[in-house]
Amino acid sequence: MPSESASPSSLEFVRIEFQSDLYRQAIALRHAVLRQPLGLAFSSTQIAAEHDQLHFGMLGGNALLACVSVMLVSPQKAKIRQMAVDATLQGRGIGSDLVSRVELELKTMGVQCIELHAREVARRFYERLGYAVTGEPFTEVTLPHIKMTKTIVTC
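Request: output the structure for the sequence above.
Response:
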């Protein structure tokens, strides 16, 4: 159960290994926040395709409170996907802190640019973090989305 006092400063940033207990918690969190409200579920094929992606999260005690997956598109470019924060804790800065820490991690790996497909309802969240709209609106998983990018290392 999430802590009522959960704030970014009291949480631990972690890298999540594919198929670990934390990864299973991430799948459950992503399902609850992103899929279940749409009447969707993850298929075994979708989960298997994540084996070569990076997975990160924010822990509050033993509970995973936020998570995100990252696909390395090239050595210099990454794609953030499946960002989820426990619904009872949204708006407390946990998601912003997770994205900032992921950006730092990616920067140390040589990534220069990050892209993502933001749900339209999350567009302002990403704009506040420095992401810019780089495409026309489109529909993905039955919802309006927009492509956004951010340069994290300037050449």
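Residues 8-151 form a domain with the Aminopeptidase fold (CATH 3.40.630.30).
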